[in-house]
Amino acid sequence: MELTLPPWASVLAVVLATFLFLGAVFGRRRRPSMNLPGPKPWPVIGNFNLLGSLPHRSLNALSKQYGPLMRVHFGSFPVVVASSVDTAKFFLKTHDAAFIDRPKMAAGKYTTYNYSNIGCWRQARKLCADELLSARRIDAFEHVRREEVRALVRDLHASAGRVITLKEHLSTTSLNIITRMVLGRKYADKAGVASGGAVKTWKEFRWMLDELFLLNGVLNIGDWIPWLAWLDLQGYVRRMKQVGKMFDRFMENVLEEHDERRRREGDAFVVKDMVDRLLQLADDPNLEVKLTRDRVKGFTQDLIAGGTESAAVIAEWAISELLKNPETLAKATEELDRVIGRDRWVTEKDIPHLPYIETIIKETMRLHIVAPMLSPRLSREETSVNGYTIPAGTIVLVNVWTIGRDPELWDAPEEFRPERFIGSKIDVKGQDFELLPFGSGRWTCPGYSLGLKVIQVSLANLLHGFEWKLPHGVTKEELNMEEIFGLSTPRKFPLQAVAEPRLAPHLYTA
């Protein structure tokens, strides 16, 4: 059958061909000189043809060919990729100040209030550390984490013996912990969303969070080939605008509820949650950088989304690996029985006394790091490293996924071996460049301490309270361990598992 094109198609083809030619010519002229090794770029698209659906793995393969410090082109822009401890330390520590800026991407404009969130605004991180996520404030909410983890085990107990989708339960728990800390109450559960506005059901709320994470991690062509941005070839910008508007309606409703309580209570008003504190700071005329309403919403959105996703992803990967490695699972439950006993649940105070559980968490973060490539940085000034020149305006990516699989650092790096961390001083707080699940330097995740507590106490109690099995007929060899790429890297296929209670029945209903 012959394909008939509409009359305007030939005109559009000529226009696009002209744009492509001009982009190739002028794009090449604009590129700063750089003598780093790397693959030869194609006109216009650069090295996009070398990136698959999992860019961290594609860049890992290229680094084996061109070395731990290489240059690639994403469309019109030169990008330096660091894939070793030494190169990561160069950008994140030694010359942190020279690479402190962040490139402006469409996702930041349309989904984070025009770059008003924690990840785009440097002063926000100090505010988080001092006001919202200080050790004192996190400790004050310990009862919230305890209550929601108990709710999780009750929920799993009610589903005992049945096949469950674990991520759904973990995400519910994480979201309830975060919304109680940040917003003052549960704003969502499986029965529905307790706040009006853009979303009405739990399913819609989960979709909104998942969409936000996906769109903030995609390679949007318009970001890298700016003169094609107006076409929105992948449809990402349209989706960014949609989810941005949905979140804004939700956030406005949240802020209005908090403003109403402040007006109603007057002089008797007491700060109960993080939004209360943010609104209080927004009224402070002496604040060094004005905290606008959009910044309050951007902060709040970041706290909800970031706090929900990372803990659930890590815990799901940990259970997945333990199901593939039953000997490791047996060692974990032996430690829990010996240290905790079978007559109570694990508390946050118990975590320092559970070193093997800690090794499992570290090994999971090494093998299944949530953010395989740290957030991109932008060089402020020309810098030299190992005889190579990195011009000002160059985008830098640190591929921590590659570092976590470096055979010079790790024995049998593709295998799940928590024992490698027994007696090791390697931590996850950003000072040990072999393992950077939360980043390092001035862009370290400000909520890492909270996220770590949620991961530790939830995983410990999941292992303490239940015997975990794969569904009937599924062997450990058949368990699919593929991931998908976005702002986080969750399982491609959510884990299906069966949880059987292993403690006294009365503990699950207490």
From TrEMBL:
Heme binds at C445. This is Flavonoid 3'-monooxygenase. It holds the Pfam family p450. Belongs to the cytochrome P450 family. Its cofactor is heme. One of its GO terms (molecular function) is monooxygenase activity. The chain crosses the membrane at residues 6-26. InterPro entries: Cyt_P450, Cyt_P450_E_grp-I, Cyt_P450_sf.
